[in-house]
Amino acid sequence: MMALNYELKASYAFVERNINIVRRYWAWEVVWLFYSITNSLSVAYIAPGVGAMSSASIDSHYLVLYLIIGTIVWRYLSVIFYWLTDIIGMERWEGTIEYTLMAPITRLTHLAGHTAFAVVYSMFHTAVILGVCAIFFEIDLSKANLLGGTVVLLIGSISFIGFGVIGAVLPLLFPEKGQQMTHVIISLLLLVSGVYYPVSVLPKWLQVFAEYSPATYVLAGTRAALLDGMATIDLWQFMFPLIVMGVVMIPFGLWIFRLAERYAKRSGKLKRNG
Q1: CB-side exposure of 212: number of CA atoms within 13 Å?
Q2: Cβ proximity of 118 and 198 under 8 Å
Q3: What is the predicted pLDDT for the residue at 236?
Q4: Cα–Cα distance measured from residue 246 to residue 242, given in angstroms and rounded to the nearest whole number
Q5: Which of 34, 152, 210, 221 could bridge across to 192 with cysteines, CB 3.0–4.6 Å?
Q6: Torsion angle defined by CA atoms of residues 204, 207, 208 and 211, in that order, rounded to the nearest 10 degrees
Q7: Alpha carbon distance, N-terminus to C-terminus of the chain
Q8: Which of 11-25, 26-40, 62-76, 222-236 has the least mean pLDDT?
Q9: Are 115 and 84 in contact (CB under 8 A)?
Q10: Whole-angstrom Cα distance, residue 216 to residue 166?
């Protein structure tokens, strides 16, 4: 019991440290939140823009909601991914990465703290963006299954954590170019996951990759719940592959991270940058 209490306190310490980092760079946080809001609105305005340019009858309301859901869900997932991968580079810049990785705690405790903060942080940003979008557009969710959509989103975040932990290996092993490589991973997921369009419009060979992206199932499940009002029990078809991905990817990510950590310590790759 005492050991569990110790691990929980140690995990919360990383949550508290991340809160202090956000407070320290609060101006950048405001900038990125403003950018996210304007980006979401810009994407959503594509719907009425298409209606204004086309003579065909288009359900602009449905398309607006389709794009808003895609933008907000992707923002939620990508923030989780970026926070888990960028924290390595941030600690390297601050000069604390050696102390963190030498601390007498398990790597699960370390990453659990970062993960918990990333989920709450991303939820906050998502709520703010959704609130602003609701002001600009008449969003009707009277027929939506909000509970089911939230469940899909939370389960999806667990599966995305595994990808984030694996992505964090890159800046750990490649101090100069690892962070850029994580942007390549997230951009590929953006392409194949159907964020702004159905996966069915992609070339067949890209659709194959979409089947292995957790974002594909999160987006499809969330849209089914919010746009079509699909019952929570019927959303199992989207939740099941997400649970499988989470069960597989998180332990695999932790294993890969431990191997990378040992190599980084032996080869002296934990030096401070900048």
Answers
A1: 9
A2: no
A3: 93
A4: 6
A5: 210
A6: -160
A7: 42
A8: 11-25
A9: yes
A10: 19
- Pairwise CA distance, residues 94 & 132, whole Å: 34
- Please tell me the distance from the alpha carbon of residue 82 to that of residue 89, in angstroms, as a whole number: 11
Structure tokens given for 25: 């760079």
| Contact call for residues 153 and 145 (beta carbons, < 8 A) | no
pLDDT at 81: 85
The CA–CA distances, whole Å, from 245 to 38, 184, 206, 236, 239 equal 32, 21, 19, 14, 10
* Distances, alpha carbon 144 to alpha carbons 165, 222, 271, in Å: 33, 10, 50
Mean pLDDT, all residues of the chain: 83
- Residue listed under structure tokens 């027929």: 143
Task: Please report where in the chains the tokens 């099941």 appear, as a residue.
Answer: 240
How many domains does the chain divide into? 1
Structural domain including 152 reads 2-267
Assess if residue 274 is contained within a domain: no
How far apart CA 172 and CA 257 sit, in angstroms, is: 9
DSSP string, 73-108: HHHHHHHHHHHHHHHHHHHHHHT-HHHHHHSSS-HH
* pLDDT above 70 (res 271): no
Q: Is residue 119 part of a domain?
A: yes
The Cβ of residue 34 has, within 10 Å, a number of other Cβ atoms equal to 11
272 in a domain, yes or no? no
The CA distances from residue 193 to 81, 86, 88, 187, 200, in Å, are 15, 22, 26, 10, 10
Distant-in-sequence, close-in-space partners of 99: CB < 8 Å, separation ≥ 6 = none
Cα of 19 vs its chain's centroid, Å: 18
Asked if residues 192 and 206 have their Cβ atoms less than 8 Å apart, the reply is yes
Write down the residue that tokens 């690892």 correspond to. 178
From the number of C-beta atoms within 10 Å of its C-beta (0-12, 13-18, 19+), residue 98 rates as middle
